[in-house]
Amino acid sequence: MQKDSTLTETSMTVIYFTATGNSLAVAKHIAGRCISAVALLQQTGPIELSDPEGIGFVMPVYFGQIPAVITQLMRRVSLRAPYLFAVLTYGELAGRAATHMRRLGEETGIRFDYIRSIKMVDNNFTIVSVSRQVRDCGRKKIPACMDAIAGEIRARKCFVEKPGVVSRLIGIIEERMPQGSKFDSGFSVEADKCNGCGTCVRVCPNANVKLTGGHPQWQGDCLKCTACYHNCPHGAVRYRKERSRYCFRNPAVTLQEIIHANNRTR
Ligand SMILES: Cc1cc2nc3c(=O)[nH]c(=O)nc-3n(C[C@H](O)[C@H](O)[C@H](O)COP(=O)(O)O)c2cc1C
Ligand code: SF4
Ligand code: SF4
After folding, report:
1. Which of 6, 133, 179, 205 sits most deeply, having the most CB atoms within 10 A of its CB?
2. How confident is the chain (266 residues) per 10-residue block, as mean pLDDT?
3. What's 183's DSSP letter?
4. 123: Cβ below 6 Å to ligand 1?
5. Is 117 strand, coil or helix?
6. CB-based pocket (< 6 A), ligand 2
7. What is this structure's pTM?
8. Which domains are delineated in the chain?
9. Cβ of residue 38 lying under 6 Å from some atom of ligand 3
10. How far apart are the CA of 31 and the centre of ligand 1, in A?
């Protein structure tokens, strides 16, 4: 990938899904028009988008796979654009996510010209120490990779990433791992830190958090995105197997933007 130091944003449309802002930071770096996948899914009737320049998706990788929100949207959306792309943000190993995205595109009639993954801070507190991730993220050269990807998309590059041998093997293992259908049961709240502000409710893309007696309760329909945990302004949300106590949000993204993207209580 070539670094593009004279980058300006394209006028393409980017559909994004995000919990902690990495994917929105990349989406904003690519294009001026960013649309939340969660908001699009709230529309009744057909979802149709057209852009004479191009349309793309930016999303996190979850266990080597594509988030359910994006899978659902791709099954409903109809896109008209001369250039179609996808960018997958991940923390350590993207597994076979790029291949899954290409196949999902083929299944849903979206023929991607460009799919690439980008390594960013890993927000999965059940697997990694997020505080260490943030401390060591310099090694990932994130700003340069973001510039390079945005430059390639701006140049309408055609490229579909093929995962290497390690990623393929890890991907196959990840896809067979039990993925914690009872993820909700690991959450708890530190009552002395929680002031009942309701941010955890508003950042949840699946309306899975409710306030009861001024504190959050998880409703059993979690997408495992981690938004409620990382975006609590008081660091009051805990998780049973957390590897560190650290709330991460990409510095290029505000809490208001996460709420705007995911809030389903409006
Ligand atoms: C449930 C879950 C599963 C994840 N699985 C992977 C994975 O398989 N490989 C990886 O490298 N990162 C994985 N991650 C890390 C995220 O893909 C990464 O931090 C992403 O950039 C977060 O995007 P966001 O800030 O837009 O939400 C996972 C995160 C979560 C919450
Ligand atoms: S965001 Fe944090 S402080 Fe606010 S209600 Fe939720 S847990 Fe409590
Ligand atoms: S409950 Fe928390 S982790 Fe689960 S989908 Fe909602 S915001 Fe994401």
Report:
1. 205
2. 42 96 98 94 94 97 96 97 98 95 97 98 97 98 98 97 81 68 90 98 98 97 97 98 95 98 88
3. G
4. yes
5. strand
6. 189, 194-200, 216, 232, 234, 236-237
7. 0.94
8. 10-176 (3.40.50.360), 183-262 (3.30.70.20)
9. no
10. 22
